[in-house]
Specification:
Chain B: It comes from Ferranicluibacter rubi. Chain B: Keywords: Cell membrane, Membrane, Transmembrane, Transmembrane helix, Transport. Chain B: One of its GO terms (biological process) is transmembrane transport. Chain B: It is found in: Cell membrane. The complex is a heterodimer. Chain A is mostly helical. Chain A has helices at about 1-5, 15-20, 25-50, 55-60, 70-80, 85-115, 120-130, 135-150, 155-160, 165-180, 180-190, 195-200, 205-225, 225-230, 240-250, 255-290. Chain A starts with a helix and ends with a helix. The longest helix of chain A has about 35 residues, at about 255-290. Chain A has two domains: about 1-75, no CATH class; about 75-290, MetI-like fold (Orthogonal Bundle), CATH 1.10.3720.10. By secondary structure, chain B is mainly α. Chain B folds into two domains: about 1-35, no CATH class; about 80-310, MetI-like fold (Orthogonal Bundle), CATH 1.10.3720. Chain B is built from 15 helices and no strands. Chain B has helices spanning about 1-10, 15-25, 35-55, 75-80, 85-115, 120-130, 135-145, 155-160, 175-185, 190-200, 205-210, 215-245, 250-255, 265-275, 280-310. In chain B, helix 5 runs antiparallel to helix 12, helix 7 packs across helix 9 and helix 10 (about 190-200) crosses helix 12. The longest helix of chain B is centred in the first third of the chain and has 32 residues, at about 85-115. Chain B is globular and about 75 Å long. The two termini of chain B are about 30 Å apart. Residues about 1-20 of chain B have low confidence and may be disordered. The chains are: A mainly alpha, B mainly alpha. The interface between A and B is large, with 113 and 112 residues.
């Protein structure tokens, strides 16, 4: 609340900046802050629970609101939880998909934007139509295909389906098209090969697009729940989402509630910290992908 | 373009290589496809083939091990005679109705409130988008611990006033609303950010003119702000319809479709049919229905965003 009254330098970008600090403005800000508090409340509740001893919680939930707090639940993670394995699995899968997507989509984007080959335009339109195919329309057949190839419960099985997503190709093609053609032409005159032009001249210019696509891909795979649920069914192949979900079944009785919550907090901390540092990129990536 | 400059500078010296290079630039050559080939392999094998295979399966009595006997449209007739399937479609539309207008409106209000360059506004934007980076499993864990009777946050808050919280996760009238609340909490960041970026594209001098005319807040919104972001509004609504139509994780993890299937959405129905009962033909048929519904929404999105692109 104190920040509200502090004399911050208003550059007057928005409509409210024009009006200045009217009463209406203050009311709106206060309401928004109140809403933010409501928004944060469930998160705070979960963190608070994770810091409590279980016996105390069993006696009364109001114990959450006063000391003593303990880190014991977090220490228990170190010894008893599979959460590290799940995080490792998620890192391997998300990292693998991100790397593969960046390589495939950069190559394809360059190809569609700069090179001519038979049926190029038709192929590009087909890829664009692929954007409209929802995951659920291909899941069942894909699952059967992977059963036959014995790919379930393997890392390739969790990684490969993502590499067919057309969004990255679309994004990279747009980006390559926006780069002036004179650059390639100059390099062509120097007798540079197509691959050399791609690798040395154009690819360094696409770093912003790579960042957008990389962050968006990593986040989507990290948070995916459906495919790992049906493909990585063995406990040691659980990704973080499936692993955390598997602990949820036994929580009707409040036994180990604090431990469960500490595990959830521990699991979501890395992505929230990344979000705080790379907020701008993440927001751009996610909203860019939504509008496409 | 390149051939002209090349030809005029050194026509006599090296005619053959320049000829070749000209062909490189313009002619459709098969070997140029080598850059797109790796992606296309994945695209065809893991997207296009499964798409048509899924359609093919929906016409068969398929189980976990084989695509069995051809049954024509029997799976589809079975589907539309299944009360639970029809209920799942109803549930899905109900859920879209609960979430999409709320997401669009709350997102717009937040964007209007936070479209200023102060520290506070920046912090608040961070808060409202933060939930969007969490996974569905964490979101449902958080909200179950809010809604769960006895030791949930709501129960505790109601307890302070000596009241008993309604059973959000087991009352048939409330479960969908509970799932919708969790979903709105999870997803509101994206609409807010889309509206914010639209608002920032409105030139400031229009507002200066409006301020000179002493136009009030509501008047300014109605005659300047809203017309400028109308397209974004439609876009947000369509994006959210497509997204919320695919409700799955929240329903599976918060209520598992219960009680009595009142919170079973279409995707959970597909999951249960295909991966619980291993009735793959039925599941495939249900996913074709979902596909058709989403295609309609995606078509609208395409038309809207294309119209937007032409204007810009």
């Amino acid at each position: 609340m104190s920040t509200m009254t502090s004399p911050s330098a208003q550059t007057g970008a928005g409509p409210s900046g024009m009006v200045g600090r009217s009463t209406g403005d203050r009311v709106i800000l206060a309401l928004t802050i109140a809403m933010a508090v409501v928004m944060m409340a469930p998160l705070v509740w979960v963190v608070a629970l994770s810091l409590k001893d279980n016996k105390e919680l069993m006696a009364s939930m109001n114990a959450v609101f006063h000391a003593p707090y303990t880190l014991q639940n977090y220490l228990n993670i170190l010894t008893t939880s599979s959460v590290f394995r799940w995080i490792l699995n998620s890192l391997i899968v998300s990292g693998g998909v991100t790397l593969g997507t960046l390589v495939l989509c950069s190559l394809a984007g360059y190809g569609f934007a700069r090179l001519n080959f038979p049926f190029r335009n038709v192929l590009f339109v087909i890829v664009l139509i692929g954007l409209a195919i929802p995951e659920q329309a291909v899941l069942i057949a894909r699952h059967q295909l992977f059963s036959w190839l014995k790919l379930h419960n393997t890392y390739p099985g969790l990684i490969l389906p993502w590499l067919s997503a057309p969004f990255g190709v679309f994004l990279m093609t747009q980006y390559f098209r926006a780069i002036p053609k004179e650059l390639d032409e100059a390099a062509l005159l120097d007798n540079a090969s197509r691959f050399k032009i791609f690798w040395k001249v154009l690819l360094p210019l696409t770093v912003p697009a790579q960042a957008t696509l990389g962050i968006f891909t990593f986040l989507s795979v990290w948070n995916d729940y459906f495919w790992p649920l049906i493909s990585g069914t063995k406990k040691e192949m659980y990704t973080l989402t499936v692993g955390i979900a598997s602990t949820q079944t036994n929580f009707a009785q409040s036994e180990g509630l604090g431990f469960l919550m500490s595990q959830a907090v521990f699991a979501s901390a890395p992505i929230l910290i990344l979000y705080l540092f790379f907020q701008k990129y993440i927001v751009t990536a996610v909203s860019g992908a939504a509008v496409r | 373009m390149a051939d002209l400059t090349l030809g005029s500078t050194s026509p006599a010296e090296r005619p053959a290589p320049s000829r070749r290079r000209v062909q490189n630039v313009n002619a459709p050559l098969w070997r140029n496809a080598i850059f797109v080939a790796p992606y296309l392999v994945f695209f065809v094998l893991l997207l296009i083939v499964p798409l048509f295979w899924g359609m093919w399966m929906s016409l068969h009595k398929a189980d976990a091990f084989s695509t069995g006997r051809f049954v024509g449209l029997a799976n589809y007739t079975r589907l539309f005679n299944d009360r639970i399937f029809l209920q799942a479609i109803g549930n899905t539309f109900y859920f879209v109705l609960l979430t999409v207008p709320a997401l669009a409106l709350i997102g717009l209000l937040l964007a209007l409130a936070l479209n200023r360059q102060t520290r506070t506004a920046a912090v608040l934007r961070t808060v409202f988008f933060a939930s969007s980076v969490l996974s569905v499993t964490i979101v449902t864990l958080i909200w179950r611990i809010v809604f769960v009777p006895g030791f949930g946050l709501l129960s505790t808050v109601y307890g302070w006033f000596g009241a008993t919280a309604p059973a959000f996760l087991s009352d048939p009238k409330l479960v969908m609303i509970a799932i919708a609340i969790a979903t709105i909490w999870w997803c509101v960041g994206l609409p807010m950010m889309l509206f914010l970026s639209a608002l920032q594209q409105i030139p400031g001098d229009i507002y200066e003119a409006a301020a000179l005319d002493n136009a009030g807040r509501w008047r300014t919104f109605r005659s300047i702000t809203f017309p400028s972001i109308k397209r974004t509004f439609v876009l947000v609504v369509v994006i959210q319809i497509v997204l919320q139509f695919q409700l799955f994780g929240q329903a599976r993890l918060m209520t598992n479709g219960g009680p009595n299937n009142v919170s079973t959405p279409l995707v959970l129905y597909i999951y249960d049919a295909a991966f619980k009962r291993w009735d793959l033909g039925l599941g495939a048929a249900a996913s074709e229905v979902l596909f058709a519904l989403i295609l309609v929404a995606a078509m609208i999105q395409y038309l809207v965003s294309r119209r937007k692109g032409e204007d810009a």
